[in-house]
Automatic annotation (TrEMBL):
The keyword Kinase does not apply. Its EC number is 6.2.1.5. One of its GO terms (molecular function) is succinate-CoA ligase (GDP-forming) activity. It holds the Pfam family Ligase_CoA. Succinyl-CoA synthetase functions in the citric acid cycle (TCA), coupling the hydrolysis of succinyl-CoA to the synthesis of either ATP or GTP and thus represents the only step of substrate-level phosphorylation in the TCA. The alpha subunit of the enzyme binds the substrates coenzyme A and phosphate, while succinate binding and nucleotide specificity is provided by the beta subunit. The gene is sucD. Heterotetramer of two alpha and two beta subunits. This is Succinate--CoA ligase [ADP-forming] subunit alpha. GO terms for cellular component: cytosol; succinate-CoA ligase complex (ADP-forming). CoA binds at T17, G18, A19, E20, K43, I100, T101, E102. Residues 4-104 form the CoA-binding domain. InterPro entries: Cit_synth/succinyl-CoA_lig_AS (IPR017440), Citrt_syn/SCS-alpha_CS (IPR033847), CoA-bd (IPR003781), CoA_lig_alpha (IPR005810), NAD(P)-bd_dom_sf (IPR036291), SUCC_ACL_C (IPR005811), Succinyl-CoA_synth-like (IPR016102). Pathway: Carbohydrate metabolism; tricarboxylic acid cycle; succinate from succinyl-CoA (ligase route): step 1/1.
């Protein structure tokens, strides 16, 4: 089992013919993803050779979906075109839209997020995220497929790099799905959304949650865990040594006074029974202990 992305997912790539789109489409295909189409305006009717298969290119998302049955879109387009690309996918009725693009203006994200909510059909992951992977089944984004194995841990993370590290450190146990939700101030899928999905997934036994300084997403996740999550959760919060008032890496990772500190988030999570590591490696050890004692 997995959440959001399975072996049956049919994936189209918006911006597939660009440099990043081409590179990561090849990696997704190598991971076993059923990439059925690319979308590049003005290039409809062409096709791209990825060695093991040719992938047709369409001029619009609607055409690609009608011809191939695609239900997942991965967006590799420059920031100034991201809003238009995502809104096109939403209007075409895509079920899952994974926005890899970094540097999307927050007001653009707000607009396409609101459009997705109004549609009642489309789940947004990102922007500024590595995407998601259900090892052995499918990959949508830029997460390396060869660093872990299929298993029964679910992972939700704001950080792409920390996603990779935890996947690698726990590779012998393996993951049902790893979801990189992105670290921008406004994102589509949240920690809580992923926690709910993992709680409902019979293929997930335990959950790793990676947060970071800034905002109150981790505190809200802690409140949700207390009320709704019965599976064990282990967490890591990046930024214990971050200086106050300085943006660190992600646009949302900024501490203002006592709000949004790593220590405050750690305390909120531990209060509801979540074990919190002070380093990624300690977090992996805590998950091993948790799995071992179940």
């Amino acid at each position: 089992m997995a959440i959001f992305l399975t072996k049956d997912s049919k994936v189209l790539i918006q911006g597939m013919t660009g440099a990043e789109g081409t590179r990561h489409t090849a990696r997704m295909l190598a991971a076993g993803t059923d990439v059925v189409a690319g979308v590049t305006p003005g290039k409809g009717g062409q096709s791209a050779d990825f060695g093991q298969r040719w992938v047709p290119v369409f001029g619009t998302v609607a055409e690609a979906m009608a011809e191939t049955g695609a239900d997942v879109s991965v967006v590799f387009v420059p920031p100034k075109f991201a809003r238009g690309a995502v809104e096109e996918a939403i209007d075409a009725g895509i079920q899952l839209c994974v926005v890899i693009t970094e540097g999307v203006p927050v007001h653009d994200t707000l607009r396409f997020w609101a459009r997705a909510q109004a549609s009642g059909r489309t789940r947004i992951i990102g922007p500024n995220c590595p995407g998601l992977i259900s090892p052995g089944q499918s990959s949508a984004g830029i997460i390396p497929a060869d660093i872990t194995s299929a298993g029964r841990i679910g992972l939700v993370s704001k950080s792409g790099t920390l996603t990779y590290q935890l996947m690698y450190e726990l590779r012998d146990i393996g993951f049902s799905t790893a979801v990189g939700i992105g670290g921008d101030p406004v994102i589509g899928t949240t920690h809580i959304d992923a926690l709910q999905a993992f709680q409902d997934d019979p293929g997930t036994d335990a959950i790793v949650m990676i947060g970071e300084i800034g905002g109150d997403a981790e505190e809200r996740a802690a409140a949700y865990i207390e009320q709704h999550v019965t599976k064990p959760v282990v967490a890591y919060v990046a930024g214990f040594t971050a200086p106050e008032g300085k943006t660190m890496g992600h646009a949302g990772a900024i501490v203002s006074g006592s709000a949004g500190t790593a220590q405050a988030k750690k305390e909120a999570l531990e209060k509801v029974g979540v074990r919190v590591g002070k380093t990624p490696s300690e977090t992996a050890r805590l998950m091993r202990d948790t799995i071992r004692t179940r």
